[in-house]
TrEMBL record, chains A, B:
Signal peptide: none annotated. Belongs to the PurK/PurT family. InterPro entries: ATP-grasp (IPR011761), ATP-grasp_carboxylate-amine (IPR003135), ATP_grasp_subdomain_1 (IPR013815), PreATP-grasp_dom_sf (IPR016185), PurK (IPR005875), PurK_C (IPR040686), PurT/PurK_preATP-grasp (IPR054350), Rudment_hybrid_motif (IPR011054). The keyword NADP does not apply. It is an enzyme of class 6 (ligase). Keywords: ATP-binding, Ligase, Nucleotide-binding, Purine biosynthesis. This is N5-carboxyaminoimidazole ribonucleotide synthase. Catalyzes the ATP-dependent conversion of 5-aminoimidazole ribonucleotide (AIR) and HCO(3)(-) to N5-carboxyaminoimidazole ribonucleotide (N5-CAIR). HAMAP family: PurK. Residues 112-298 form the ATP-grasp domain. GO terms for molecular function: 5-(carboxyamino)imidazole ribonucleotide synthase activity. Pfam families: ATP-grasp, PurK_C, RS_preATP-grasp-like. Pathway: Purine metabolism; IMP biosynthesis via de novo pathway; 5-amino-1-(5-phospho-D-ribosyl)imidazole-4-carboxylate from 5-amino-1-(5-phospho-D-ribosyl)imidazole (N5-CAIR route): step 1/2.
Amino acid sequence: MTNYFSSNFKLGILGGGQLGKMMLYSTRKFDITTYVMDSSDEAPCKIACNKFVKGNLMNYDDVYNFGKQVDVLTFEIENVNVDALEALEKEGKKVFPSSKTLRTIQNKATQKLFYRDHQIPTSDFTRFAYVSEIEDAIDNGGLEFPFVWKAAQFGYDGNGVKVVRQLSDLNNLPKGECITEDLIPFKNELAVIVARNETGETKTYPVVEMEFHPEANQVEYVICPARIEETVAKKATDISLKVSKAFNHVGLLAVEMFQTENDDILVNEVAPRPHNSGHQTIEASYTSQFEQHIRAILNLPLGQTESKVGGIMVNLVGAEGYTGDVVYEHIEDILKMNGVTPHIYGKKQTRPFRKMGHVTIVNEDLNKAREIAEVVKNTIKVISK
Amino acid sequence: MTNYFSSNFKLGILGGGQLGKMMLYSTRKFDITTYVMDSSDEAPCKIACNKFVKGNLMNYDDVYNFGKQVDVLTFEIENVNVDALEALEKEGKKVFPSSKTLRTIQNKATQKLFYRDHQIPTSDFTRFAYVSEIEDAIDNGGLEFPFVWKAAQFGYDGNGVKVVRQLSDLNNLPKGECITEDLIPFKNELAVIVARNETGETKTYPVVEMEFHPEANQVEYVICPARIEETVAKKATDISLKVSKAFNHVGLLAVEMFQTENDDILVNEVAPRPHNSGHQTIEASYTSQFEQHIRAILNLPLGQTESKVGGIMVNLVGAEGYTGDVVYEHIEDILKMNGVTPHIYGKKQTRPFRKMGHVTIVNEDLNKAREIAEVVKNTIKVISK
């Protein structure tokens, strides 16, 4: 049995952003030696890891050489060189989630095909090698407005996704591989985080509800548990487990879904790592998603996923019109509020819509938490000097 | 209003042990630049602070020069050079808790005199300059067995305290300044942590109960909330507030008390910092004591001190008979248990009774938590290779 704690064991995290930073909360708590690689000197992970390596996550050699230094390798972002991960696995290095899982997920087209191949419900879609092919499809009647355009690779956090209602909406889109999806009217956007360790022990977190900001396509409130019927929650959980099983995944898998007008569940996309919808678990759950991810990839027993209290998360994104050294205006006012705690990721520069932190609001009464969350949202502002 | 978050503001912590380490959980969460000073290269705080300074906490120059580098200075251990703190205060530096508070508390004799002077109930005591004076007092009938001997300075964690039942128990005690206290039969050992910021906003945590290990004089279980009557809890809280007010303290003040057979409350001693009895707040409370200490010393609004769930803490101390590179035997077995999470401080070497970490057990049902805590205690063992 490997001794992970206060030992010579080394965990490696590819990516030094806020997800990695919050993983470090757990590695510090457990005194697990952790190396982190990121290309930025100002990466939030730079403090609190045992060794910080500067490197390009998409570069084969950088990723390969980093992986050689550690015993178990994981990542906090999908944009890493997956060929290097595969090479490391072939040499017997433990990489979780696997390169196979990442390769499927990294490309939205292969991801959708994966769902289709495994009978996982998802919206109808078409794959295109070039955006220009979309225009052809519209011309010959194979594609109708409105639809959702998604870049096949490198979309993140609202970028790389667009609702197309007329031809001009296609202007200025990246030209390459993409998919179009049916625009499904939905009641709710939901997410379930599934945790699974190497042994196969599996646990799911309660279903969460995500309220989205219409223009920026970013989440405004994450609400846990989702305010939906038990039957719908069960359906969402079952489908998430099916996705997890299909991937044979190790670590966390966040499954984003739509609840249609008919209460059907359709998988939107997945992320093989801790997820924005799970940040509230730090304060609301018996086991934070970050600790859970660490437990899972080290094949330690999984922790309890029940909630202690209701939890709501509000993202802190850079306000429009402000770029520069960040100032969290009125943060002291939200610190007065019961059950409210902000997380500041440590990015020194703000710009419009940049994810700078989040605020979690916990309360035994979820409705009260939602009220307080709205006040929080209308109080704190991420501006610049 | 000072911008503490992602700014040029610098917080300084004297002492790099586990209390400082857990304060860093909060400074990392808030992205508050934090410097730490400790004499050991292997201090738990070395990772996760922005700058680690090696220095002697009892050395005037080391403490003074460290304090000059930061905007607000605090400490996680009482054994620091208090003259240097006083000099820094005179120059306008913010030091919390104050040098005045620390000076009174650092010496157990002056601490007891402080309670007497402020009509704070505490056991009767006598102050001695030398242990030899104790023998004289016994000879002339001024002091009777049994009594409690306490070194006036530098006692920590069971050392510097001894129950004296016969003359030979005085052998091998440090010779210098000390106090003797009446040995009070008590029902329970309790603690209340009081938080107070510069503005005077004050909050108290729920009363906790401490079950002690008879020989080692270390806490075995910390139970929150204490299983005592409401009237006793209120008395303990009121007395704690009285102590806090008398000190005019800023930051956290942990007040340790005895509940006598008559349900009277006597103050045993205080610690002007986060305290072992408050570790369970990380998982059980709406606001961890560490975040609370940071809020208080920065004059931020205090967080809610209510509990989300019942919480019990078990200390992880080095097992007898083992010295060397630490191994946490059976830690994977406790990770299976619901609501259980270990904290590993990061000390590489274990020795008998050394505080190496703690395990928190949370549960909605405190009795269930207590059962699980006992299993935890009988399962995990801190040994060496």
